[in-house]
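Fill-in record for Prolyl 4-hydroxylase.
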Amino acid sequence: MAKSKAAKRKRNAQADLPQKVPKAASTVLTPPPDGASREPKNLSTVVPDEDLEITVETLTTLTQYPSLTKSKACKDLRVAVYEFRQACTTGVNNAEGANLTARITGALADKRYLEAKILLAEMRIRGEQPKIGALCRWVRDLDVVSGLSTQPEAREKASLERTPQDLELLGVLDAILRVSTPIDLRSNAVDSTDPIAFQSIWDLRPQTTPLQVYASVLDKSILNEAPKDPAAIRIIETTPGPLRKPPNHHPAILYTTLPNAVPLDPVSPSITYHPHPAVPGL
């Protein structure tokens, strides 16, 4: 009994003493480096894929009923769409006040094909020609004849009825080709009522059997030509798959080698310039 009373008095005495507050650890907040971007790298981190699909379907449906978009219920939607369009860094907005090439690129990015054909006609009237990089970008953006000329049955497919969208894209492609190649100087040009008149493929590869590089990768025989020293090859940059543009399931790994790690032929091959029969300056 006496021990319990003594212990109680000791606890009460300790409670009356000033309590020692633990000192907070001093941490120095380091600001982010200048120019560091805080914007997310992947769209799915901001908006789920399902919400994005619903938004696209909603806007696509409303475009079929223009009278409904003028209603009061769509006021907030119109404001949001306008702000989104102004914030977009691609297309016509980005090419405002730029040259004809940039304006055509922006019109094609926004799928404003009528405006693109008007700008292409202006370029042709002014006697200007696009650079080869712009020409390749425009044809790639249209993507209306990819792989068609390399298929054995391409000639039969060309006579099939085309959709109105394909005909519109082919009309833009025709305007692009008339700007880049105003005159067809080939004697074997074919007259055709079809939007596409197939010509022979411009192939400068030698008639010898090409190197089976892909097959050597599959059977790993290509490793016989690799440097024997593992230190001769190192990774200088690795981009995770989700951070790639566009995102990918696999990372992008960039390697480099030490000087003379990969043996080259001491005799350089001869270089010959071959002008393209239809595209000048290629």
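KEY FINDING: Confidence is low (pLDDT under 50) at residues 24-29.
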